[in-house]
Design goal:
Blueprint: H1 4-8, E1 14-15, E2 17-19, H2 28-32, H3 36-40, H4 43-48, E3 57-62, E4 77-78, E5 82-86, E6 92-94, H5 100-114, E7 134-139, E8 142-143, E9 150-151, H6 169-181, E10 186-189, E11 191-192, H7 198-207, E12 211-214, E13 232-237, E14 257-262, E15 264-269, E16 278-283, H8 284-301, H9 307-316, H10 339-343, H11 368-378
Parallel strand pairs: 3-7, 3-10, 4-7, 10-12, 12-13, 13-14
Antiparallel strand pairs: 1-11, 2-16, 5-6, 8-9, 15-16
């Protein structure tokens, strides 16, 4: 259960993506092992069937970005001129940068969604989960180009708290709110560490816009936004199905995990030496946009599905089991996000209720009152109240229907074939949940 006192205890800024560059001499076949997630997830089959996220808008909130990197040229990537930050002199800081340190994280997060399949000379093509989607990019903080320090001054001159990637707390809140106003279908955030996102998150829950956010690679407890009520916290796993581990070797178990996706040994573009070099890396930063991309592909196939129904499908069609009753554990949440599973089932039959939102916990952040206030501000009108039970689908038994964080280490290995794109649930669920009412009660380890 997501509680305010746990969130307030986690004030440290945390970078989500752990990456270490692979030497330029690494063989192309070794780098190609970083595409295991694309092959095992049957992503190409979905694209070949015409489902690549076309017509769907994903908002990505991150650092600066280099939209001219190979693999993003020609993609439908919309980047505003400036970030939400200003330098010490009060001048807006640009959202676009070719500086690797400033732009690598955001560039690669977007590439996991929009990668076109183009590659630098001698490199390995990187294709995203939803290359046909539109990504609206919100740069919410970065290095001050004049001082080299991680800083973000707001328009009123106040200094904003920033994380290790340079993401600013208040700026992220503005970005989430603007993404909703700009019509985003899905919001993807690969950074965390704040206590200023209650209002923006309540607005997203009220509007039915899913926020997909990375969990820490270390420490388990998700701060904001991953640990917030109604947000999907994303775990990372590797080709062997094992979730990320801490430097101590302990698995990255979390009471805030909602789903899991590939994030260990994935192929990224660019090193400090050159944007044309490639590397293997790990981090929930990269698992998060894969989940967002999968949801965009499903949204294209089922355009009438609401954001809440997409989340219902995410938990009811995970792994390789087909449609099933949701089961949660503190390792992979409701299991590995399955593009194949979600595409096979029309999500419009599911309740239009966010299954990650607990309306019954007054200490949750945000709680039901926060969401109700946000709904009133949005003047939602006839849209179903996300805190109230929704009518179950008109079918028998529908109410019981099955259904940059922490430092990383380099991973350069040849990954064996034949492993199905799934994560075996490591423990039986001890979580009681009423998915028709959006409840997430008694989450226990």
């Amino acid at each position: 259960m997501r509680r305010a006192h746990r969130l307030l205890a986690v004030l440290g800024a945390i970078a989500l993506g752990g990456t270490i560059a692979v030497p330029s001499s690494a063989a192309a076949e070794d780098l190609a092992s970083g595409l295991w997630w694309f092959d095992r997830g049957n992503v190409q089959e979905a694209h070949d069937a015409g489902f690549d996220g076309s017509g769907v808008t994903v908002a990505v909130i991150d650092t600066q970005i280099n939209p001219d990197v190979v693999g993003l040229r020609g993609a439908d990537l919309q980047v505003p001129e400036n970030t939400y930050c200003h330098d010490a002199a009060g001048a807006p800081i640009p959202a676009v940068s070719t500086d690797y340190v400033a732009a690598a994280h955001g560039t690669n997060v977007v590439s996991m969604i929009l990668g076109t399949g183009e590659a630098p000379a001698g490199g390995v093509p990187i294709e995203g989960a939803a290359p046909g989607a539109t990504v609206k990019y919100y740069s919410a903080g970065l290095e001050d180009p004049q001082t080299g320090e991680v800083a973000c001054a707001l328009e009123n001159g106040e200094q904003s708290t920033t994380d290790e990637n340079g993401i600013a707390a208040e700026a992220m809140s503005f970005a989430i709110s603007d993404a909703i106003d700009d019509g985003a279908d899905i919001i993807s955030v690969s950074s965390e560490g704040y206590v200023f996102l209650l209002g923006a998150t309540a607005k997203a829950v009220a509007a039915g816009v899913p926020i997909i956010a990375g969990l820490p690679n270390e420490g388990g407890v998700g701060s904001q936004p991953a640990g917030l009520n109604g947000v999907v916290g994303v775990q990372a796993f590797g080709s062997d199905g094992a979730i990320a581990t801490w430097p101590s070797g302990d698995p990255n178990l979390s009471d805030d995990v909602g789903t899991a996706a590939p994030g260990i040994g994935v192929l990224l573009q660019g090193t400090e030496a050159s944007w044309d070099e490639q590397r293997l890396a790990r981090g929930t930063s990269y698992a998060t946009p894969i989940v967002s991309g999968f949801l965009a592909v499903v949204k294209q196939k089922y355009p009438e599905a609401t954001g809440n129904q997409l989340l219902q499908s995410l938990i009811r069609n995970s792994g390789t089991k087909g449609e099933h009753e949701p089961e949660w554990n503190n390792s992979t949440g409701y299991g590995a996000a399955s593009l194949t599973g979600m595409l096979a089932v029309d999500p419009t039959k599911y309740p239009d209720v966010n299954p990650f939102f607990d309306p019954d916990d007054p200490n949750a952040v945000p709680n039901a009152d926060d969401v109700a206030a946000a709904a009133a501000d949005l003047d939602i009108g006839s849209t179903p109240d996300p805190t109230e039970p929704s009518a179950a689908p008109d079918q028998p038994g529908a109410e019981m229907m099955p259904w940059f964080i922490g430092g990383g280490v380099v991973l350069l290995v040849l990954l064996a074939g034949g492993i199905v794109f799934a994560v075996a649930l490591t423990r039986s669920s001890k979580r009681r949940t009423d998915h028709t009412q959006g409840g997430t009660h008694d989450r226990q380890i």
